[in-house]
Write a structure and sequence with these properties.
This protein is mainly alpha-helical. It is built from three helices and no strands. The protein has helices at 27-40, 44-51, 55-68. The radius of gyration is 17 Å and the shape is globular. 10% of the residues are buried.
C-alpha cells in the first residue's frame, strides 16, 4: 500500500483532499446560522448543508448558544 504525502512539512495524518486549515467564521455568521435553525424549523444538518458548513460545527455553535442562554 502506498502512503500519500505532500512533503516533509505536512503530517502524514493529512489525507488526500483534506485541509490543513480550519475555516473561521465571524460571530455574526454564527449567530445568523443559529437563528436560521431556530426560525426555519429545519434540522441543524439541513441548515448546515444550505450554508455549506460542517454540521458538527453548526451543532456545536447551537449547543453552546443554548447553554449560554441557560437552555438545554
Amino acid at each position: 500500500m502506498d502512503t500519500w504525502r505532500l512533503g516533509p512539512e505536512v503530517p502524514e495524518e493529512v489525507a488526500p483532499g483534506g485541509s490543513r486549515y480550519t475555516k473561521r467564521y465571524t460571530e455574526e455568521f454564527e449567530r445568523d446560522a443559529i437563528a436560521l435553525v431556530d426560525s426555519s424549523g429545519k434540522t441543524v444538518t439541513a441548515v448546515a448543508r444550505e450554508l455549506d458548513i460542517g454540521s458538527e460545527s453548526l451543532r456545536g455553535w447551537y449547543r453552546r448558544a443554548k447553554a449560554d442562554q441557560g437552555g438545554a
